[in-house]
Specification:
single chain
């Protein structure tokens, strides 16, 4: 499994995203075959997209290096992503059956495609910026941009939310799991 994970890590982002898009297109047509799934097709596709991304992140955990100190402590860099993947899949199974119930609400017309597309492109751009400005700054900027685009105007919330998120991820990854998240080329000289 580690060699498969290493192979996945070596793939360009576009290949992984293209594969996920291809599977979602196939599922779109598959869900259209049954009247029961056709009326809730969009809800099922969102759920499947989240599960595919979760599966990708789970498979990538096999390529994470584990120190002896982390092994002895019982929590490794693989622990949290795998826990999140397990909880996500468990929750999505329940959501899948809830959506398929006959009394489930039928798909509604979604009129914010441009917003959804911008958030998707923004998240990809944010990940691409990790190597330049680092995880923390890139994530904070992405959170602020999404909050502003959703109509948030409270300046305190716009500052506090990304700061809390960055502190939380720093504590979980750097202090508990001993994983250094990318600080970016710009800040590498400062961090020395």
């Amino acid at each position: 499994m580690a060699s498969f994970s290493a192979w996945l890590t070596s793939l360009p982002y576009g290949v992984s995203l293209g594969f996920i898009a291809l599977v979602l297109v196939l599922l779109y047509f598959l869900f259209g075959l049954s009247e029961r799934t056709k009326r809730v097709r969009s809800q099922l596709l969102v759920l499947c997209a989240m599960d595919l991304i979760t599966l990708l992140f789970f498979l990538l955990t096999f390529s994470l290096r584990v120190s002896k100190l982390a092994q002895n402590a019982g929590a490794t860099p693989r622990t949290v992503p795998r826990l999140w993947a397990f909880l996500m899949i468990f929750a999505s199974i329940g959501a899948f059956f809830a959506i398929l119930k006959h009394d489930a609400k039928e798909d509604e017309l979604f009129e914010r495609w441009i917003f959804a597309l911008l958030v998707g492109v923004g998240s990809i751009f944010s990940v691409m910026m990790f190597s330049f400005i680092g995880y923390y700054l890139s994530s904070a900027l992405f959170i602020v941009l999404v909050m502003v685009s959703m109509g948030e105007r409270n300046k305190v919330q716009l500052v506090v939310t990304p700061v809390i998120w960055c502190l939380f991820t720093y504590i979980v990854f750097a202090r508990l799991l001993f994983i250094k998240l990318p600080v970016g080329m710009i800040f590498k000289g400062i961090m020395r």
